[in-house]
Write a structure and sequence with these properties.
The chain has nine helices and five strands; from the N terminus they run E-H-E-H-H-H-E-H-E-H-H-E-H-H. By secondary structure, the chain is an alpha/beta fold. The chain has one domain: P-loop containing nucleotide triphosphate hydrolases (Rossmann fold, 3-Layer(aba) Sandwich), CATH 3.40.50.300.
Length: 175
Amino acid sequence: MKSNIALIGMPTAGKTVLGKWLADDFGVSWLDTDHMILKSEPDLIQKYGEEHFLKIEEQVLLGLDMTGHLISTGGSAIYSEKGMKQVGKISFILYIELTLPQLLKRTEDYVKRGVIGAKDKSFEELFEEREPLYKRYADITISFAGLPTLEEQYHKLYKEIIQRDIAKSLKNNTS
């Protein structure tokens, strides 16, 4: 049974901030998969490379087995089909969709930020590559086109979760 909410989307889409805010408002635990991976080794990508990071990310996703959580995934989580199947088994997956111009306004140096694939591709190319994957794995796509601030985006996201009755499963399954 799906008893979590997982946020997916491009780097800088706001998954971390929105996830924290949602967890606070719904009174549930919050988990950020990138933070889990990088807290013990902040320079993991620089030291061991992107493939190593993706393997660890997949292990983290496959190990997710909890209820009543708000999960913010890394932007590259969608590269692991097995990992996303696990996330989808336990969570309602919401794709936080921003337009490319919105994302570019938030992204100053995506290579320094550690965006997987940024060394070989432009941000625009990554967007085109990833967007179909986000849509494939999402139960619901929440478009933030025309909403410039995180606050406006949060209100729309919160409203969608309430209207679609997703929050009920979080509250009934907190542990």
